[in-house]
Amino acid sequence: MLENYSSVTEFYLLGFPGSKELHNILFATFFSFYSVTLIGNMVIILTVCVDKRLQSPMYFFLGHLSVLEILTTSVAVPLMLWGLLLPGMQAVSLSACCIQLYLYLSLGTSELLLIGAMAVDRYVAVCNPLRYTIIMNSHTCLWVVIVSWVFGFLFEIWPVYATFHLTFCKSNVLDHFYCDRGQLLKLSCDNSLFTEFILFLMAVFIIVGSMIPTIVSYTCIVSTVLKIPSGSGRRKAFSTCASHFTFVVIGYGSCLFLFVKPKQTQAAEHNRVASLMVLVVNPFLNPFIFTLRNDKFLEAFRNVMKRCRQLLKG
Fold first, then answer.
1. Which of 83, 118, 204, 231 is in Cβ range 3.0-4.6 Å of 90 for a Cys bridge?
2. What is the pTM of this model?
3. Which stretches are transmembrane (predicted)?
């Protein structure tokens, strides 16, 4: 169906400029990041599933966030790594390009919704602790996760359809390491200004829409914590939100730079850097941000490792 609207049957990814030696360095660096991302997020998922002390809304959401991080980075990074090993440009079929862009945008949308839900969870935990278990019960948490996943995959159907509905006749070379929407729009010989404007509004709706509950939640959290008389109480309250807030700042910063701009075709070099933040750096940092200073998780992880050793010995 896509071929009816396009004279292009495949695209060529330019990837990263530079010498073979630079590509080898980039491959080693990104492969290390990707490996740590997979291992770290899988450790989070395994620990949350196995240890009963982590059966709470915060860790339930964290487990799903780790799943989304693994899937998001796996949509593009393996192809990027393969491209760094190959001489010249990398060929990608039109259908594969469409699927990659759809999965990337859908998973990213679901992740933003889940981050907003995690902010609300922290708000209820800090500002309304007596009703926390009633409000954030297992039924509510399950529905929040289901809605995040389903909405993300439904919401991105039209943007991807609109992108590949255009006629690509200028070239079939994408100045990127994956099928970036901005680069695809640049290859269109149709007037895509209206499509770009609609895509911009949809990106604003998702990113800003998920930021509003996050900002409101953290405003209420700060206001509540500052009213706590003891310094130790304030530090304890802030510590429950610090990891999520750090992730929010990094994640939203990258997304705002990458997607919320009226002209989607601008600045390929800057888009490449922002894409690396979203696809490589953020998923890599996720396990460290959420676990390194979390004594409860670290204790649970040690118990899981102890049980694994006992099973291997037995």
1. 83
2. 0.89
3. 25-46, 58-81, 101-120, 141-161, 197-226, 238-260, 272-292
